[in-house]
Each structure stands twice: as structure tokens, then as C-alpha cells.
Amino acid sequence: MPFDFDTPIDRSGTWASRWERYAGRDVIPLWVADTDFRAPPAVLEAFAARVAHGVFGYSAPPDVLREAIVERMQQLYGWAIEPTWIVFLPGVVPGLHLAARHLCTADQHVLVPTPIYQHFKRAVQIAPREHDDVPLILHAGRWVFDEAHLARAVRKNSKLLFLCNPQNPGGTVFTRTELESLASLAERHDLVICSDEIHADLLMDEGKPHIPIASLSPEVSRRSVTLMSPNKTFNFPAAGVAFAIIEDAQLRAAFSRDHHATLHDASVFGYIGALAAYRHAQPWLDAQLAYLRGNRDLVEAMVGETPGLTMAHTEATYLAWIDASSLGVEDPFAHFLAHGVALSPGAQFGNPAFVRLNFGTQRARLVDALARMRSAADRA
What we know:
The protein contains 14 helices and 14 strands.
């Protein structure tokens, strides 16, 4: 069945965060990480059926969705989990905040990789928890951990290690060897690992599989909290659903203690969308990945031929982490915005010399945006 990712969709008037910010301006918004694609037909049909039913009362997490997640983890990763390990959430971001508040105490220390999605940092700052930024380094065209720096950053009171895999904004899919090294460090220092794996399905490089760090061994699983969601992959983040997979009962109880206190349930449409996506939307996902790979290649080609811009190869996510430090402008984000392209400012992720570009949009729009960026770079 063919799927249409090329036809432009007018998102004005839909309260879309990415589009509302620059409404009425000649600006192409490529920042917030949702896509401009309609959700899969199977998801839309499931939503429509529930709307036709007409009752939207309080909803319990459905056992059938737990079973679908268990089957998916086994099918994709050979990872055997139990339905009781799954804790449903309204989104992955609340999971980061729960981890910072409840998986380490006020006198304990957190290790946060950088550059990183900004809510990792916000979680430890708001908790608040003492933390060290652990820089990733560019090695052989991939953003990876500086293992020596990471080892030096561990303290006697270190308790929590944050991980983002696939990496946002760098686009790295960490290898088994790289994950085993992180897991070994966590075991030596008795660290809990909280791994954001929301981009696990958005693999741009065929043949580079995603590996949940908790799937490495039972020992690693027992010290891990794995955060996942269909929101990014199937583009229904406004429906609100995510889940944590936590084997250890004490970790699971600590993580869950804000349920119905400060944290609300996932949306019924989130449950419905997740089940429909996991059971029926794989053909759509395969087609979307093929389309996104073409977009990724366009971005990398433009950056590669533009003086002043460089980027690592994007192995996963629909995000490009672009180094504009040689462009000769004080604020790359402001410079590109002045030329009609809104990107995410690198300062949000830990480096203001970078910008993050969301290429999850129609190709014609992306081509227009890249032309504007090339012109902006030429004028720098």
C-alpha cells in the first residue's frame, strides 16, 4: 500500500507548537521534534472508531497494550520482559523528571551526557540534584562518550547515569560494545541507568540495530529504567502516551510513587494509538523511514557542500545536529531565523555554536529550507 509523505498539510490553526510560534511570518519551522506527516491510517481508524463510540471516561492501562509491548520487545530486540515491568506515563519527559527525583536522593549525584535533549538537564536542575555534564566527543563521525572523562566524573555519591539512545541531538545509535562499556561502569559504581529510547524505531541506517541497554543482561536490566513511546515514531505526541520498562520492583515502586499525586495517566487516545501502531502500522513505518532517509541525505549533502557548516552522520532520529562554529556569526540560530528558517538553538542542548534541524517534513519544504540556509551561510 502506498503512503503519501509528499503532500503538504496545512497545520495552521491546529495549535501546533512548531507552526504557531512563527505564524504570519515567512519562516519555515524545523525545530520541535514532531513531523508534518499524518499519523498512520491504522491509528487514524482506531481514533475514529473510539470517537464514534462517544464516551471518553477515565481509562485503565489496557492489558492488551502491555502484551503488545512485551511482544514488540521480544520481536525487535530478543528482550524478554514481563507485563508487570511496564509503567505507563503521559510522556517520556515526565519519566526523566521522575528519575531525577525518585531514583536518587537529594544528597546523591547524577551524570548527564552533553550535548543532550534539554529536559535531561531541566530534570536534575528542578529536582534539584547535583550533577556533572559528561561531554560526548566526535569520533569517526559519531557522537560517543568520552569514557575517560566519564570515569573521572563518577563520585562516591554518584547514583544515576542518564543515557539517550539513539542520541538526541547527535543521531548516534550506540553499539553493543559501547553500551556494554557503559553498563560495566554502572555495575562497578552501583549506578542506576535511566535510558531515553524514544527514537528507537527511527533508524536511518539500515544494518545498525537499536539495542536497549537493559537488554544486555539480567544484571543490567535490574539497574535500568528504559523510557519508550510511540509518539515520535508514529507522530501522535499530542495524544500523550509513553512507558517505562523497569524490572527491579523497588526501582519500579520508587519511580511510580507520584502516580495520581503529581502525574496524570496517559491519554485514552494514547493507549488506542499505541496499540494500533504496534499491531498494524509497520508497513507505514517502513515507508516513513525510507522517506526520511532521503531527507537525511539531502541535509547531509547541503551541509557537506556549505563552507562553515559540518555535521556528524545521522544514524537515527529525524534530527540533524549541525556545527556552525566556523560560520563566523555570533548566534547561528538567530542568523538562520533572519533568513527564514527556524531551527532549535544549540544552547538548549549544551552548545550555542550548533543548531538542530528537524527534517521530518515534506521534501519540497525541506529543499526550500535548505536553499535558504545555504544562502544564509553564503552571506555570513
